[in-house]
Amino acid sequence: MNEEERACCRGEAESGPDSPAPGHKTKQRSEEEYKCLINRLSRIEGQIRGIRGMVEKNAYCTDILTQSAAVSAALAAFNRELLGEHIRTCVKRDLLAGKDETIDELLSTLQKLMK
Q1: Which of 6, 54, 68, 100 could make an S-S bridge to 59, C-beta 3.0–4.6 Å?
Q2: What are the chain's domains?
Q3: Contact at 8 Å (CB) between 90 and 9?
Q4: What value, to the nearest 5°, has the Cα angle with vertex 105 and ends 7 and 21?
Q5: Where does residue 91 rank: exposed (0-12), middle (13-18), buried (19+ CB within 10 A)?
Q6: Which residues 6+ apart lie within 8 Å of 6 measured at CB?
Q7: What is the mean pLDDT of the chain?
Q8: pLDDT greater than 50 at residue 7
Q9: Which ranges constitute the DSSP H helices of 2-100?
Q10: Residues 7 and 31: beta-carbon distance below 8 Å
């Protein structure tokens, strides 16, 4: 199995204390992808804590809404990054392997993201 195949989504994970529930897929991410995603999430988490602080300090509504919009944009950017990587790795691999059901899974995911 080459590096790209190891990085792609897998079927059921092996059992262990940190394993997901049976039937859930997992993905081994590269160190670079992992760091990028975690850094984005850490920034979003900080923004959320900032908004909470604004509410606790009775900040003006439009100021809070402006920060909330920034969090929404940051989360959308996170989703675009993750989706792009998913298509380049997992979806590509599955389609090359003849797993056409991956298209339905991708379409379902896109519908959820576009709500």
Answers
A1: 54
A2: 29-113 (1.20.58.1000)
A3: yes
A4: 65
A5: buried
A6: 28
A7: 86
A8: no
A9: 3-7, 31-56, 61-86, 92-96
A10: no
Q: What percent of the chain has pLDDT over 70?
A: 80
Separation between Cα atoms, residue 99 and residue 44, nearest integer Å: 35
Dihedral of the alpha carbons of 51, 55, 58, 60, in degrees to the nearest 10: 50
**pLDDT for residue 2 is more than 60:** no
Distance of CA 1 to the CA centre of its chain: 25
Q: Is the pTM of this model over 0.90?
A: no
pLDDT digits 0-9 by tens, 23-61:
688 989 999 999 999 999 999 999 999 999 999 999 999
Q: Judging by beta carbons within 10 Å of its beta carbon (0-12, 13-18, 19+), is residue 113 exposed, middle or buried?
A: exposed
Question: In this predicted structure, what is the pLDDT of residue 115?
Answer: 87
**C-alpha neighbours within 13 Å on the C-beta side of residue 89:** 21
Supply 94's token pair.
């599955």
Tokens representing 6 are 């190891």
For residue 25, the model assigns a pLDDT of 86
2 C-beta neighbours (distance < 10 Å), count = 6
